[in-house]
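Worked example 2:
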Amino acid sequence: MSALCKYREVIGVTNSTSDISFGSLMNGTIWKLVLSLIFKIVITIFTFGMKVPSGLFVPSLAIGAIGGRLVGITMEWLALDYRDAWWWGIYCEPGKVCVQPGLYAMVGAAAVLGGVTRMTVSLVVIMFELTGSLEFIVPTMAAVMFAKWIGDAFDRRGIYDAHIALNGYPFLDNKEEFTLNSVAADVMRPRPGDMPLRVISQEGMTVGDIEELLRLTDHNGFPIVVSEDSPNLIGYVTRRDLSLAISTARKNQEGIVTDSLVYFSSNAPVDPEGPGRPVPLRLRKLLDLAPISITDQTPMETVIDIFRKLGLRQLLVTHMGKLLGIVTKKDVLVHIKELENEDTSTMLFI
């Protein structure tokens, strides 16, 4: 790094501008910075695209600092070659440093990071804390704001938001506004023609029935209802808790077999109901007895606000206490894309 700044030592000991401008030290410094800039950009593209935790914050600062340093050296070069020009005489006083390439590097680092992430005030504060120079806040603020405006002219999303959309991750942006005239019944599943919603009855299902349900589906959880004939919502149980409880009961609880009845109600029997009957399995403790639910006529704008503010993965849809269906975050995003006539095949369902 000291070799890159060695040309500045020549500036202090010589009055020959030609030696400075076109000497090997100046050219070597510029070429090293250009190659470093190209290498850093290429490596950052690869590392950020490979989905490895390599970060984008420091590489953006490095790219901006290298680019800013190149601009600073160029301005210093021009100031030395045209020192007698009137426009330099206005700003450059004899015997004082006219151009500070380090300042250009700092401003360039802030500008690139601000343009990439769309950070504004917080970025200026970070740069001030890094340098401790209050006098450089104004050029840093100007560079960051211009970088943000130029970036917003192409796309109002930052690099992270754009990368989320590029990969198709289910994400609802808190800053984005939606105007929808639909209700929850228009988005919920099952839709007309679909298979019935997979639910678990609070009584009557066996361990084998639940294990088969877990094997045939990949849902993250299941609503618990009174029975298939009376779909009044009782609660909700996650797939992970249900699978873990059944596997643990088979290993540690004596008498639990495939034909053992599973009870999610409070009046579950402790002992077998008759001679020769297997021991029942009580799983009421797994239940979320107050799952967040909405009615079928809830406006979609309200549904989106619930997903945003509570960070939910799904909402249960009911009518007069009876379970009608389920709305997931992915269903909401697909519905929005359909209304905007966008391709829904890019959504990544994980």
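Confidence is low (pLDDT under 50) at residues 13-22. The beta strands are 200-201, 205-206, 221-225, 233-238, 261-263, 281-282, 293-295, 314-319, 322-328.
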